């Protein structure tokens, strides 16, 4: 027996030693001054583990977070994407982020094909994630999730607004030392995201690896910083203490493309200058290798500045509510195509069940002209069970603005279904607009086959997938009087009784003539009163 | 000979006269409806919760037809609460009327009015004949209270007038509520009931029952009508059998058309369990909004029993000799206590009241009821606006109005029924209220 335990231990030990050597961790920070009055910082922590995701038990891991691995294993997840976001990414003035994220929380997952009950696993996965990430993802279930057909490969997409974001930090040294909560919440936009997917181990793609991307995106406003001359200390409270020992690469990139119009000087000067030509668009980056000692970067802008003509990105969108009162309204999603050619886009709407939409009121107009959708998928919702799922494939003409509008009714909920702050309103999640762009202008996203920011340099592809998320919307549903349940029950029952009494009398009693003696007290008083008044 | 021809001529004249009057009234009503439908008020009226409930709004029908045209099962969502048969019916109708929705609604509304007119005419003459035949059994000094021949002419016109120009039915028609079709089947049912044709009666009963479930209890007054007025038990049995057969045929058609039985949950499930709490003029919405979850089922059962079965047996026993009055009473109870009532239902029942002109003398609460009706119907839209659009009132205000409206209807119903009891008593015992030479009072014992 003793021997067996020992042997098992030995096997596990050997096994774990083997796995230890097969994962790599890189940390990167991209700082990009935006043309508008903001600066964008994107942290990218990538763990690549050369194990087969289908057979790995996640009992032993080195850098890969075991807690996540267990969840993934248990619920048979093939691919998992979680993002928790505060603020709204302004596509029209900021361009595209490295990873798109909807305001609030978004989870989408792809389950393995042998999963028996996807809905059950989905609910359990959301609950486990809410425990892991300290976010209220436990409200995610089939009543607010949809299974898109075009927009995502995976099974579920959801939006839940109650975010209590916290983050799986990969360590306190290295770039993660820049993530101080006080400075993160001082931003116009902050988003933490976690993307887990199986990738090819090498070019031949004979075997699979597991890739985990953890990212933090922050957009600082110069107005909040007080000056345009940014530095790591102003942005994050401190400089980088040293590189992460576990990381195989630890790099900071500063996008200097805007320097041609808004020239600034970096100090210390970057270790290297990288020029990336991607989709006909040239960008330059200053590259810093984070040393094993303290590093502080600052930028100083020159006084005289030229005006730059900034063209907005090829595709962006916004969403708003129409109508007034709490009876009928409409949702309008506006899509802007600034490209010189037609763009095929997929618009995905996951509309909660408390916003019943009428498909026959769906109108798609491009600059006032009717634009018939190429394809349309619609699954009507069911109260308290399933959201309304609408996915439209549209062709956007060049240089056009398209409005997708649909009408809805305000519903009346049971009094216990309202949240404690009923008049705060209910959220309608953002629409997701997916498209393949042919130009990479304003595009910083990672290529499909890449996992680090370095991979995105000179990564020209035939198309660049963008997924534009629109604003969340809040509607205030009409509320009942929450203090009245007893009164309402009593009054309504009184009315029922008002019918019951006379009907009971009429049907069960007979009409008889009775002598009019024994005048009742009330009648006597009444008679006396009338006699008195007559005098 | 000449006297006879002149009599015939007079009758012909009368007939011509009445036909002229009907045509005049109908064209006036049609013009009024047409004008309102083309005006900007149409959408305002159609959007009012008093007119359009989840059960009968045309918007939901259009959604259902649209989904059907896109090959999406309209019953996979929960917006549509019409039966597949109705949906099929509307689809055919829209083709027949070439998408002229307003003419479709106007035609059906006018047809309902004319059917009600014919019903009232037939019923009044039956009642008159019956009373004349039983003259000998009535008390001598009560003969003045019997129906007069002028009532026979006037009342049907009043019914037609009350149906065509009643604001409730007018708004119902202008608001494109499918209660218009429901009312047509109900009036067809009443018409064939007083005529004693079992087939049409039961088929239209089955149709209206399939549309809104509640009218199925009307099978009792129909059978009673055959038994007590036409003295034919076989007809009553045929009636019931045809009703059951046509209900099952409708169900088979519906399940075939919708490809499964999923529609049952959407149509009858919604009527019975009230999941949609959009306000209407009934009692259910606020009651079940504020209901505690663990008592919900109990109260759903009791409210539905209250609307259907509770009064069915006692009223049927008490008024078995007056099945038409029984029909009115049951229709009234359904209208007040059903889960999604609308003004179209109220208007339909109210327009039947002129048939009971002989009870008018015995009604005591006409003024009260009239005033409540007036106040409630004018306050309801105002308080709705204040609650939903101005946020300066809340749900309680609107709820109060709907309570008052329900109370008015209940008062009216009990008043009419009590009037019938009193009239019977007076016809039997005379108008003198003397007990052993002393003043007496009438009371229930």
TrEMBL record, chain A:
Keyword flag Signal: yes
InterPro entries membership: PIG-T (IPR007245)
Signal peptide positions on this chain: 1-19
Entry keyword set: Membrane, Signal, Transmembrane, Transmembrane helix
Superkingdom as given in the UniProt entry: Eukaryota
A Pfam family that the UniProt record links to this protein: Gpi16
A single cellular component GO annotation: GPI-anchor transamidase complex
Keyword Transmembrane in record: yes
Example GO BP: attachment of GPI anchor to protein
Protein name per UniProt: GPI transamidase component PIG-T
Organism from which the protein derives: Rhamnusium bicolor
Taxonomic path: Eukaryota, Metazoa, Ecdysozoa, Arthropoda, Hexapoda
UniProtKB/TrEMBL annotation, chain B:
Transmembrane region(s): 101-120, 157-178, 184-206, 213-230, 236-255, 299-317, 324-340, 367-389, 395-418
Pfam families xrefs: PIG-U
Any one Gene Ontology BP term: GPI anchor biosynthetic process
Superkingdom classification of source: Eukaryota
Native source species: Rhamnusium bicolor
Protein name as annotated: Phosphatidylinositol glycan anchor biosynthesis class U protein
Organism classification: Eukaryota, Metazoa, Ecdysozoa, Arthropoda, Hexapoda
Predominant subcellular localization, coarse grouping: endoplasmic reticulum
GO cellular component, one term: GPI-anchor transamidase complex
Annotated metabolic or biological route of this protein: Glycolipid biosynthesis; glycosylphosphatidylinositol-anchor biosynthesis
Family under the similarity heading: Belongs to the PIGU family.
Membrane topology: Multi-pass membrane protein
